[in-house]
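Q: Can I see a sequence and its folded structure?
A: Here is a first one.
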Amino acid sequence: MKSLDEIAKIAVNAANQLRRNGVRCSVAEVIDAANALKHINLENEEDVLNALKITLAKSKEAAQMLARSFRMIPKSKDQVYEESKFKKGESDLTFWDEMGEASRGVDQFVFRDDRARKMRRRSWFSYSPSDVISRKRLNPPKPAEIVEVRRIIKRLRRRLALMEGRRFERDKHGEIDIWKSIRASYSTFGEILEFVKVKRKKTRTKITLLIDVSGSMDSYSDWLLKIMHTLCRYHHNVECFLFSTRLFRATEILAKSSPEQVVELIWRWADMWGSGTKIGKCLTLFLKRYCGMVDRNTTVIIISDGWDTGEPRLLRLGMQKLKEMAGRVVWLNPYADKPGYRPL
């Protein structure tokens, strides 16, 4: 049986092969691949390839690309690329240097150069189960973008409305409106033939945002910032939380700052950006600490790709509890419209 170092190496190498072809692979996906490889026979190349496809490939094209490049992925420490696989003038060490882009945490291993017969000590970056402290510089939204997002959110809040506003609408099960009934009787010479019943129109809602800022959501960072800032700055009854492997309440930062200040404050305080993803753990923590913010008038919006490296049981129980407490739960997955994407 191969060591955990070699298992992690196969996952990282496969992710790097996809990156070379323009396919995004996050740290969380590399972690999933390594965990999957623990449970299969690594001598069976077909099983290894299928595990890598399931965890790393988000589309049919990416799966085919991974299958074509699978024979180029080193499976052990002593296996290196053939010279023809490298560009002229490149050494074998280039491949191992590139692994630093794939994931976090550092370990040491000895790389054997079969042709030079020399032992060289190199740093190898691989998955670490510990939490990652990482900050990210975001681009502040432009005024025109804020106006557009505000228009979209205004329509969205009407669709998600759970709370009664000031206006009324007709409803056969509502209360009798005597003035509207009298006005309607003008057409029958003042004789009231039917009472008009009305109820208050639902025009408002409390919104709680739970936003995934893990590595797999990195390409949507600027878009998420526009949503967060616009909702918290220009709308009432909004709470915003960021999560990856930890939970961070960002409402005060977003509500009282300009776009430029928001970028600076998030960079300073939200230090789990680009880490792994433990949705179940963070959801459980949210329900434990902030359950008072959620009631039947609250719409909870979760923005995440659903790639969870934590316990599935925690996520299932957390979602069940959240559905019982909230008036509505909406899960927005940015990958849902991608051809061939299927959540695990």
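Q: Show me another, different protein.
A: A second, unrelated one:
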Amino acid sequence: MNGSTLRKRFFISLAMLMFSMSLFVFASWSWLTAMFAEDVDLEVGFVAVSLDAYFWNGTTRIEAEEVEIAPGVFKPGVYSIDITSNSAADFFEDFRLYINITSNVDTYIRVKIYEQLTLSYENYEGTITEMSILNQDYMPFDYALTNWHDNRTIDNYLYYMNPVQRVNETTSLDIGLITQYALASFAVYSPGYSLQIAFSVEAVQAAGGPENVWILATPPWGGSW
């Protein structure tokens, strides 16, 4: 056997050895990776709130109804409140409003309330006309303002001063804004008048949300976010 043949066999054997070692290293790495790998499910944080508007007469809950402007046609998110009869199911004093927080991260909320007094009358032809009535004052709801800051004279918002989030995955945190009526009896209006009310609820992540979304460097009540 000449030297050339021996060298050829040597290099072939060396190549096979290196290939075998690479397979061993790859198999070992794969086994170690599988042994120490762990599945991790991460949920991206989200901000979510909703409104719960209804009437409560002390024993019965009655859902607030949107204003109907034609048969089967409603004003989205605009509710009708009776201000003429204290025996009406949707009477002013019985109105309740809660904000349901389902965010899984700390959240700041603010609420804007739109109030519109209206007067409806029927002419001799049976046509009903609805007029908007200018009202310079806020309607006298019995607001539960603990932890709320009333900034309506500045920007028309009510701010909840604490960052909040849901209780757990299946339970929302419910914050009352109108939870009762313990003021002097509401002075009813003449027949034909009604109150139409709507709400805008804004929620932002506590970390950076007020500054970047609401463009508020500091809270309206002072201090820092």
